[in-house]
Amino acid sequence: MKHFSKAMLIGSAIGMLTLAAPQLQAATPKDQLVIGTSLAQVLSLDPQQATEPKALEILANLYDRLVATTADGRIVPQLAESWADDGKSLTLKLRDAAFVSGNPVTANDVVFSLTRLMKLNQSGSSYFKRIGYSAETIANQIHAVDAKTVRIDLTDKVTADGLLYRLALGVSSIVDSAEVQKHMANDDSGNAWLRTHSAGSGPFTLNKWTPNEIVILDANKTYVGGAPKMRRVIIRHVPESQVERLMLDRGDIDIGNALSKSDLETFETKGNFVIQRVPTGGFYVLAMNAGNQYLANPKVREAIAYGIDYKGIEKTIMGPYGRARNIPVPENFEYALPNPDWHLDVAKAKQLLAEAGFKDGFSLTLKTISQTPRIDLATAIQASLGQIGIKVEIQQGNGSEIIAAHRARNFDLLLPQTSALMPNVLGSMDDFANNPDNRLEANNAGNFAWRSAWDIPGLTALVEKTSVEPDAKKRTELYTQMQQMFVDLKPALLPLFERFEPLVLSARVKGYLAHPNQMTRLENVTKADAE
Amino acid sequence: MKELSVAEFGRRIAHLIVSLFILLLVTFVIGRVLPADPVGAIVGELADPAAYAAVRQRLGLDLPVYEQFFIYLKGLAHGDFGTAILTGNPVSADLAQAFPATFELATLAVVISTFVGVPLGLVAALFRDRLIDKIARVVSLVGHSIPVFWFGIVGLVVFYAGLNWVGGPGRVDVYYEGIVTPRTGLLLVDSLLQGETDIFWNALGHIILPAFILAYAAVAYITRMTRSFTLEQLGQDYVIAARAKGVGPARTIVGHVLPNIAVQLITILAISYGGLLEGAVVTEIVFSWPGIGQYMTNALMIGDMNAILAATIIVGFFFMLLNFLADIAYAVFDPRTREAAR
Lengths: 531, 342
What we know:
By secondary structure, chain A is an alpha+beta fold. Helix content of chain A is 32%, strand content 21%.
């Protein structure tokens, strides 16, 4: 038994050590903010490359942009202290700010950053390509007038307002051109280096990023707006909702997002937590492939619009994540039209299918990313459409599989989600109402309407006209027309629910104001016990 | 070791290499057949086809699959595992970071499961069909049938959120992050070497729960096997002879039975160890453990083949290495193998 008792001894020793270990700290330090979230999609921290929401939250604090949008959608100064437009160009005056490196922020850095965005030619550049800027033309469209003045020419596809909103996006972050140029290799515009480093003038700097583990931001003590109140911001990868909930409960993280509906609900009654339900301006959408023999028919699409139990799904599945809405403009936006009369009406849906010549129904596939809440949403749609005679087969996949199928028009039904480019009718309809060339050869895979093979020349022209309409009153009328036309067309991109991002904050956290476009800034965040 | 002939040693090494090659080939083909799209992950959802095609070409994904495999092998021959899409780092650098985390967890788990499983199995065999045997059976059955995921969450609810006995997810509390310089990559070892005892205790508090949970499934297996090996020996003539001569039960077990089941036990432990390394995937996700399991899962999600292949090779190699070491251990423990080799 000698070995046995030795084993027992060691075993119990380990146990005792654990119990005797110093009591583990139960609260986060008062000068550090700890956020729990899923970092699985963060592949790059190059501001001109990353468009994933979690990456944007980080970048928003590493970099300043020329202008920013407030949570309620107003344009406010950031690096530009003032601007003016003469209908032909937008001229911006820069404030006296410096990068973390000590280099001053100059007009050359602005030209460098926006040129870099177009040259890198990744997802983010599409926001500018759509309004007439490109890698080839950008050199003639943006000018450093002097060290502190930048002029950007307007195109025939955008107003100064539309351009300003785009300059407030994460992809328009201003990078330290001297610093980035030091790290260029193989004509990559410094991308390999900037993916994992920061060279900005924002309130924080990147201390460390270990993919799928942790991101640590250090305060930029020389920030032009004053040193941030938190010394460090730590973003920890917590992929499991239940685990995140426990960490919040224990006080090991201050803010948690990516919680499931049921985990979120446990915080509703707890006094030491606050739930913020952040409107994103985006939507959960049912994309129908208008190239499909059935879905090409507007009557079939209308039948589907009448074949979904929006209210029931909102109550049982979407909860804090979504609110039923079938026009791609959030209800609280200015000039938003009231919802069309689409609701679950089995008889009407069946009648529409019969009128379309498909009395006996048919079968479709529905592709979705296997992720909360979309996977449950798919199941509910399957059940709902089953009632009107459309047999739906669900095909799940991970993000890259489903997006690849979407881009290739390789689907019948698919559940994408959108976010708003600008907090107005034009911005929120951007993904839904624009398809300049529906031909397969056009291969415009970055465009949602093209992916659905939804040919909408009239609506596209109307959107283009609205984008450049200088007269505010006329623009208002056009906003109404756009939404009405969208509904009348029986959209192949059917908005289902307005999208919200719920998050839970410890009541200790003060001054955290979540931003609809994930551009939440943290320099004014503090903790109750730090004041 | 001396007894193992050079030819035999060479034969086993060759075996190892062929097995690894087949493992690689199969993983590569499966990875390429999967519809995951690494290009989309890089360029983003809204990128236009030109940007998409450029990245596809840069990654060599426009080439035929056999050519891609050949290029990969060529790199491998030079010790180049390629670059990971997810991190932009050389895969070897990523693995140097992720593997020790898993290794530390799995090693602690195998130590725990050995020190619990073997004695439990011995006792269960000695007191066959008595209460202690039945308890052992239930304990191992539960460990075998309940998913690690569930255990992980319940463990966290009870010992972390409820009793406050252990640290939460992650290897260490966030405010201790980045203080210890990784030398071995094993946080428990590195923190002690650098005299950071606070961090050592904190890290121990973090690893103990996932290690126990990971160990539990292995305990079930080890207990059952130890019990059946022991029962087999207890019925042998030499045991009966020893008992007849008046040797007590403890001495019979330690002096006679254990040496006789040692070889079988080593096999079982080696298999368990390998199993723990690959089985850590779910545990790592529940406990936000930045190890090779989580690394592979995320790589699979975006079809990052370089990362998947290298991680597969490492785990496969380790598994084979354990088998190899177990083979050699036979020679040391079993006089018959020793004779045969001669």
